[in-house]
Write a structure and sequence with these properties.
The complex is a heterodimer of chains A (107) and B (241). Chain A contains 5 helices and 2 strands, in the order H-H-H-E-E-H-H. Chain A is mainly alpha-helical and 107 residues long. Chain A starts with 5 loop residues before the first helix and ends with a helix. Chain B contains 12 helices and no strands. The chains are: A mainly alpha (107), B mainly alpha (241). At the A-B interface, helix 1, helix 2, helix 3, helix 4 and helix 5 of A face helix 4, helix 5, helix 6, helix 7 and helix 8 of B.
Chain lengths: 107, 241
């Protein structure tokens, strides 16, 4: 498939749709102050966001909910490694080993 | 000139060193993502120049991967942009949460900081940016990992563009990105309201995964935040005699 020059315009528009949300409050700074209740609530944003990305990723296989799947087993190994060990590489080694090992054993 | 004097100060360097070390293990998770991204752009029919153009102009894994199929299907521009905005909505929340960390830093530095704001850098830097006083130290602590992520993203996307077809898909290297997010989440979830925010956020996003434009993720995030906040209130009330 070939694309014409308008592809670059699309890139720029997607780039704006990325940089503007990211820069929004950082650039506005003190000109817009969020109410303190909202600021306190936003402390929970990182945990909620990470879980909202990770949990569907490890529980959903091809669009359907599957509680027993290699990805969930690998995630459990990664969680255990991250909470029990201080070695930062162990979750990656353990998680990938579990994922590929289980897939290999189950054919 | 203030931006330049900050970058040249010893405090910037010491912040940069600490931020880089805090982020280094996590940044491993970007490598497979970037490789996959490069391969995906090539398989959508982009030339290497077009693929790297998108990678540099956009610099956002989810927004890039999410809009690729639409671009390839010749979808209307408004739909492509709406999709990108929905995928990036979480960054408005990140931006608001991390904004106080840029007090004492000028507008050019803030635009740069905004452009390179990513999930991993946000989660790594938030805590110290809010607590440390020296603006030059904070700028270093933020920009070093953020620019490191940028470099990794470009280098490994380029590798992916040329290596497309060499790494077997069955290796599922993209799962390393999920593991990276898990290693960020685990230390946070040791406080009970945070754990509740994560559980509710994860469960709602999973149940609402079929909402259009991946809006289920946004709804899940809001539900998780509300649940964490409610749990904090409830714990505070219970601990009072």
């Amino acid at each position: 498939m070939n694309y014409d020059a308008s592809l670059w315009l699309i890139f720029i528009l997607i780039g704006l749709a990325t940089t503007l949300p990211r820069a929004s409050f950082i650039v506005l700074g003190n000109r817009v102050v969020l109410p303190s209740v909202l600021q306190r609530a936003l402390r929970y944003a990182p945990a909620a966001v990470l879980a909202a990305i990770v949990v569907p990723d490890v529980l959903v296989v091809g669009g359907t909910l599957e509680v027993f799947n290699p990805k969930l087993a690998a995630a459990i190994v990664a969680v255990a490694a991250a909470s029990l060990s201080r070695n930062p590489w162990l979750p990656f080694i353990g998680g990938m080993a579990a994922l590929l090992g289980i897939r290999f054993l189950s054919g | 000139m203030k931006f330049v004097t900050k970058i040249l100060s010893p405090a910037f360097l010491s912040g940069a060193r600490e931020g880089f070390h805090a982020f280094l293990p996590l940044s491993v998770g970007l490598v497979p993502w970037a490789l996959v991204m490069g391969m995906a752009m090539v398989s959508s029919g982009f030339s290497p120049l077009q693929a790297m153009g998108m990678n540099i102009i956009v610099f956002a894994g989810t927004a890039q991967l999410g809009t690729l199929p639409l671009i390839a299907a010749d979808a209307p521009v408004w739909l492509i942009i709406t999709t990108a905005l929905a995928l990036n909505l979480r960054f408005v929340i990140f931006s608001a949460a991390i904004a106080p960390g840029f007090r004492g830093i000028g507008t050019p530095g803030r635009w740069l900081a905004g452009h390179v704001l990513t999930d991993g850098v946000f989660a790594t830097c938030l805590d110290k940016l809010l607590r440390v006083d020296d603006p030059a130290w904070r700028l270093g602590y933020y920009l070093a990992p953020a620019l490191w992520a940028w470099i990794l993203w470009q280098v490994f996307a380029l590798t992916g563009i040329y290596a497309a077809g060499l790494i077997p898909k069955s290796w599922s290297l993209e799962f390393m990105a999920t593991i990276a997010l898990i290693t960020l989440l685990v230390p946070m979830a040791k406080v009970r309201p945070m754990l509740i925010a994560a559980l509710v956020g994860g469960a709602s996003a999973t149940l609402l995964r079929n909402m259009p434009l991946r809006l289920g993720v946004v709804v899940g995030i809001c539900a998780g935040i509300a649940a964490g906040f409610a749990a904090e209130h409830w714990e505070g009330k219970r601990s009072q005699p």
